User: What shape does this take?
Amino acid sequence: MTSILNRELTMEGIMNRPLNQGEIELFYFIQGKSGSFSTNLFNLIASADGHNKQKLAQGFPNEVQAFINYQTVPGYWEYLQERMSRYGF
Assistant: This one.
């Protein structure tokens, strides 16, 4: 099984697919507009070590990947803002 945390991601790969629910929830979380479940989930992801992120990714793969992209992929946040704006969010 390939680890979601070990995939190398580039902006080119990210841009060639539609937004997923995890990315939408991350967008609202960063803006302080997410619900209590998503807020708690992203706070948990932020505080988890690699082993526990791996466990969280089993149940919430899109949310964990979106958070990792936000932390590690240059230009990801700007891209996410632009895409959300284009969809009217």
